[in-house]
Amino acid sequence: xxxxxxxxxxxxxxxxxxxxxxxxxxxxxxxxxDKDGKTWVRTSVIVQAEPKRLYEMWRDVEASxxxxxxxxxxxxxxxxxxxxxxxxxxxxxxxxxxxxxxxDEPGKRISWRSLSGxxxxxxxxxxxxxxxxxxxxxxxxxxxxxxxxxxxxxAITGRDPKQSVIENLRHFKALAExxxxxxxxxxxxxxxxxxxxxxxxxxxxxxxxxxxxxPSQQQSTTAEGGSR
Amino acid sequence: xKAVCWxxxxxxxxxxxxxxxxxxxxxxxxxxxxxxxxGSDLHLFDGFIPTMEQGDIMGHEFMGIVEEVGRDVDNxxxxxxxxxxxxxxxxxxxxxxxxxxxxCDNTNPNAHLMETAYGYSGSGLFGYSHMMGGYAGGQAQYxxxxxxxxxxLKIESDLPDEKVLxxxxxxxxxxxxxxxxxxxxxxxxxxxxxxxxxxxxxASAFMLGAARVISIDRIPERLALARSIGxxxxxxxxxxxxxxxxxxxxxxxxxxxxxxxxxGLEAHMGDLAGLYDTIKTAVMLETDRSGVLRQAIQAxxxxxxxxIPGVYGGLLDKVPFGAAFGKGxxxxxxxxxxxxxxxxxxxxxxxxxxxxxxxxxxxxTLDEAPEMYKVWRDKQDKVTKIVIDPWKERAA
Lengths: 228, 396
Hints:
A: seven-stranded antiparallel β-sheet; two-stranded antiparallel ribbon; 29% strand; globular; B: alpha/beta; Quinone Oxidoreductase, Chain A, domain 1; Rossmann fold; 2 domains; 28% helix
């Protein structure tokens, strides 16, 4: 079961000093550049909620499938380790990985890295009061090792890993603020034809929006469809 | 159900499509009782707004009866009569809390498209391209309304649909345009475009204290409507008429205190710059025809205000920024922060201060919509505003 614990971590921890923060001793620190086979993404949002609640929502790792695109299951495999399963819509492509939580400061910061499987990644999220009391600034820094993963990830999610991190944070914010994640599918439309279908792919609209509820909650939200 | 679908540039069809369904806990399904074709729908019809997909359901001005609500909608019940604002707002984000509803952070599922084009994404809109959310519109028999706990305005009086329908967009849009014009008691205000938004901007400018409102257009029946609510009119297509000269003549040489561009990106200009824009947009070197904007910047008085409710979509050429700076003008613009205006403007209708239905010229069925888009674009048949009854059958 817990294969990961016996394996050597495949990824380094994030830089010690600044971590995900955009500030280092009062000076702006740009996100790390892509190099040495690693790609980085840093993104942030302002959320109208307390840092504590946002931390708790993020730390509920097993509920991650409610706001992560294409994540079908996250299962705890130890006190700080989890198994992630990502699957495409038809269900024939999957990515699986084991990850461990490294730093865990309630209400402030969580960092993690993968232990085995794909992707090889590490990340950190920080929750800081926004200037002027305008909510909580949530900043995510994540690093992915570039390799065959990119193509597999894109084939499953329809986005590169960087954009996935951005979209997932957007879903997290919407869910935290409103209790739902905005979506348009499925909705009525006229005949799409070839042109319409092509555009839908280009705009990323064939990517299913996470439901905003974990599997156990889902029965109660199912709407009745059909003709009126 | 039946719905009016965008099938490509200059191609609109009424098709039979699936009924909408509840998707999220704050959704409602509305049975549409009245909907309208907006001037800004013509920008979609003419292919000026990118990210439309074949099959998209048109329409962002609609009202109706609540048919079904999601589990977290507790302010509405089946049978309630509502007007739905065309901007979708969550009510909870930083922007909604600041009452910048049209800048809502949470309602555009395709925010990444707009971030690429504009830096940040505004709120989702009904039936107005995928960059603006990709939500199916209301020129249909039913429509799904997200965040029904925040947007829809309940109509509890027995005012007929036609008197309150325009609260869905053009009345608040005209009103915010007048508010953005920062009108002081006694001001002279010039309004380009005497279409529906121009009409409501004129009416609102008077409500906010304007002493004189000058309406500029080329369509006689629109100018007649503008005169009917008290405006002075200038027809720029008449021989020897120069708008800039007319505005100086009518203001003792100082220019209007505020100018309102209720035309936007498809301005018709008879001059050389108009030809320049037509050619540049045709070869895609420019996306918007900005003739009115240039003229309004030129016309407004020193230290005056330019308010822009007219839609612009992309990159503009030859905007006289030197004139804007030189005169120290203020410019205010943007999609309407609808939710702020719904209730106060409903009150003006209830009190009889305004009857917005005065602009309606055509009442049609869904099946007649495709041909009426052409009539509306070409300004034929004395058209001033088209309202659709989605449940009426075409007369035999």
